[in-house]
Amino acid sequence: MADKPESKLGRLARLGGLTSRVGSKYIGQRLRGAFKDQASDEAERRQLHIDSAKQVARQLGQLKGAAMKVGQSLAQAVDGLDLPEEVGSALRQLNDKAEPVPFETIRRSVERELEAPLEQLFAQVDETPLGTASLAQAHVARLHDGREVVFKVLHEGVEDSVATDLMALRSMMITGRVLNRDKEELRWIFDEIEARLHEELDYLQEAANLEELSRALQILPGVRVPTSVPSHSGERVLTMDRLPGVPLEEFLKTATPEARQAAGLNLTLAFFEMVYEARALHADPHEGNYLFEPDGKVGIVDFGCVKRYSEHWVADYARVGELAFSGQRAACVAILREMGALGSAASSDEGLLWDFVHALAKPFQSGRMTAGGPRDTVDQDLKAMAPRFVLHPKVRTPRQMVFMHRSLGGTYAMLKRLQARQDWGALAAGYHARAIARAEGRPVPARP
Fold first, then answer.
1. Which pTM was predicted?
2. Which of 3, 228, 349, 351 could cysteine-pair with 207, CB 3.0–4.6 Å?
3. CA dihedral over 333, 339, 345, 350, signed as positive or negative
4. Out of 120-129, 159-168, 372-381, which region has the weakest mean confidence (pLDDT)?
């Protein structure tokens, strides 16, 4: 049974104490560093980042609620920063699972929000949760017209802890330099996390997201998005159609090779359509938000976290891709600098940025290639260069790319598990051409 939420004061005290402990360690390290050679000082500082990340992860795991969700979002966001593996591993220990809330609490919340008895709203409700996360709990139900639906309910009081947890964690990560990144970069990462988190607490906004992305992805017959049930939704309760399908782990046990390839293509097309056509991206891409049908159709759920982009930004992102695929370093880096990825003029920083882009571009330069196969070296290449990012904090993840790369990384992880095989460059090129032509006011080519 879930415990009663901790008070704001109690949470602030625990997070404030953690900030003080972490900050004191960094002060001590800087003082000791004055009496050490550079190599020893860098080794101690690296170990301190690792130890601090582990300490932060432990404390966030104990606090649950908004702190857990912020920590999880931070863990996914910093995957794009290519930190030392030990730091990433410590933060990735955080997950979005929580203890179930008693059903009577759920009943009370639903009836208060929708102003009707549960039996009047639903013909049948499964009192066993479909899932319980840090922000909400979901249940399967059946409407009186026979439709099977899922409704999710925000945890009581979760909104109250958001501002407190964000303030404390922002102070700890930026002032304490736990992640050893450029302060401006960390500020915009937290700004992005805060904006998306507040959206996840707004179920009216999520209902609008569902309708928008459901229309946008109708063009893909292999992709499903649920629609909301407005009569059974409010600010704290969201009811939507229940999609068919099973989680990826279960799908992989019985899927045919053909179904795996169909699923991989559907995931890829959904990503490209959201980025380059809708310019509204499902930015919470963990496996729990995807359902797979026996023939490879893919259902996408949980649209609380959606990142939107301007037409011209998406065109620049497409240009970066095309320049990277064709090996045009100078032009590619110039656009990335304008987008905020490079905060210095040092040739060593530019070299690291290009190495990073080149590593990401490899799958798009290789013709038909299997994600996660022998020719896919993206993970190894990025891990090999990760220590360099600690020494080059001016090579940054632009604010607009934080959730883009979070979503791309989550999609890529699923493609590897599916062993999806495609000509990734050809698929991307068609969408890039459309995005660039649209921004330049030229006739838009047909979809790939």
1. 0.82
2. 228
3. negative
4. 159-168
Q: Tokens 């945890």 correspond to what residue?
A: 155
SS3 string of the chain? CCCCCCCHHHHHHHHHHHHHHHHHHHHHHHHHHCCCCHHHHHHHHHHHHHHHHHHHHHHHHHHCHHHHHHHHHHHHHHHHHCCCHHHHHHHHCCCCCCCCCCHHHHHHHHHHHHCCCHHHHCCEECCCCCEECCCEEEEEEECCCCCEEEEEEECCCHHHHHHHHHHHHHHHHHHCCCCCCCHHHHHHHHHHHHHHHHHHCCHHHHHHHHHHHHHHHHHCCCEECCCECHHHCCCCEEEEECCCCECHHHHHHHCCHHHHHHHHHHHHHHHHHHHHHHCEEECCCCHHHEEECCCCCEEECCCCCEEECCHHHHHHHHHHHHHHHCCCHHHHHHHHHHHCCECCCCHHHHHHHHHHHHHHHHHHHCCEEECCCCCCCHHHHHHHHHHHHHHCCCECCCHHHHHHHHHHHHHHHHHHHHCCEEEHHHHHHHHHHHHHHHHHCCCCCCCC
- State residue 4's pLDDT score: 46
Structure confidence by residue, pLDDT tens digits, 56-91: 555 554 555 566 666 666 665 555 444 445 555 555
Joined tokens for residue 388 = 């360099």
Dig out the tokens for 113 from the structure.
């929000």
Higher pLDDT, 166 or 17: 166
CA separation for the pair 71, 89 (Å, rounded):
13
Asked if the model's pLDDT at residue 270 lies above 90, the reply is: yes
Q: Is the pLDDT of residue 248 over 80?
A: yes
CA distance 319 to 278: 18
**Cα distance between residue 406 and residue 78, in whole Å:** 9
Q: What is the pLDDT of residue 5?
A: 46
Q: 355-367, pLDDT tens digit by residue?
A: 999 999 999 998 9
Tell me the CA distances in angstroms from 371 to 76, 251, 299, 333, one per residue in order: 20, 18, 21, 26
